Fold these 2 entries.
Entry 1:
Amino acid sequence: MPVPFEGGCHCGDCQRIAGSPFVTGVLVPEGSVKIEGDLKSYKVEADSGNALIRNFCPECGSRILVESEGMDGVGVSYASMDDNSWLEPAVEFYTGNAQPWVTLCANTQKLKEMT
Ligand SMILES: [Zn+2]
């Protein structure tokens, strides 16, 4: 299965929800992810104005996946995958918002905002 997007986001919202300087994930076709157990979700507004639905584990609070009407697929957090060893970030978003002590990945495309 080709992966259309693998990367990280340094935006303030991702930093807040992850409790970390950035979030990493992969965009995959809807329906290609198998979730075991229930998810809880909440909706926020993305910078684009699109609704962003964040889904997380109701037991441990781990972020699992994100959906948006503006995305062609669903975003899955690297850390929530059983096997993420095959993934390598290709792009980083909101690098202008990166914490000054974070070293960006050497081989990623760097975007100051989302596009
Ligand atoms: Zn973000």
Entry 2:
Amino acid sequence: MNQAATNTDPEAISRDISDDPLNDPDYKTVGEVTVLNAAMTTKNVNVYYGNKQAIFNVSLDVGKNEVLAMIGPSGCGKSTFLRCLNRMNDTIDICRIDGEIRLEGEDIYSRNMDVVLLRARVGMVFQKPNPFPKSVYDNVAYGVNLHGLSRNKPELDGIVENALKRAGLWDEVSDRLDQPGTGLSGGQQQRLCIARAIAISPEIILMDEPCSALDPIATAKIEELIDELSEQYSICIVTHSMQQAARVSQRTAYFHLGKLIEVGPTDIIFTNPSHRLTEGYITGRFG
Ligand SMILES: Nc1ncnc2c1ncn2[C@@H]1O[C@H](COP(=O)(O)OP(=O)(O)OP(=O)(O)O)[C@@H](O)[C@H]1O
Ligand SMILES: [Mg+2]
């Protein structure tokens, strides 16, 4: 798999160089970027911060009910790409995006797209748990009210309870729903943020290093939860932990310097990757 790098045959060397994303502006991802049953499709996405390009021509589908892991060295564009999927980059003034991103066939960058609704359909969980300065109950109820998803208090109570149960938090907070969400432990806060996202029935949940601020026990709980949630939702997770990617995801995408180098079934990416850059990363040669 890393033959060409050590081969002295000039043809093999030139093949290796043309395979090098650094030298190839039209670099084409290794592996199958499309899926049959896509919740979201992205095609030829480029992202710029001012005149610096951060994502180069990335195409990648997100399958229904799949957990897709995005990995790669720091600064390779994982968060930037993830944020494109629910237009969080809109909040960064100097950020510009071109290409095509569709949710259930609908162009999310079209002028008709309601961005508030989009962010409900494509929810997000961040690295640092960020509950609102509100009660546990109101954290979960907030989006439900915002989108008018319940008709009365009993219905709202039911939605809140159900979301907290699915987030694996109900048993720990059912007796303190009126207390501040910020008073929970870090791991509980992260599950509260997940409950907040799922209360409004998203189609996709984006997670940007959701466990990096958590201890191993809280991490294990979130990983278990990701597995359960994937029965109902599509999940895209950025992680620095290859063990985590291997544990939770079915497909893994490897990014390097803004390019999507390789994508494939997680077990293949971690045991038998095709691209030498992927191999270099998973074997710890850089990253
Ligand atoms: N708000 C911003 N303004 C300008 N440049 C940015 C901004 N956010 C990210 N970048 C640049 O875009 C590139 C990709 O950054 P990004 O945060 O997406 O990487 P990442 O893979 O998520 O890294 P990490 O693993 O460290 O979180 C980097 O060169 C970064 O400096
Ligand atoms: Mg990041």
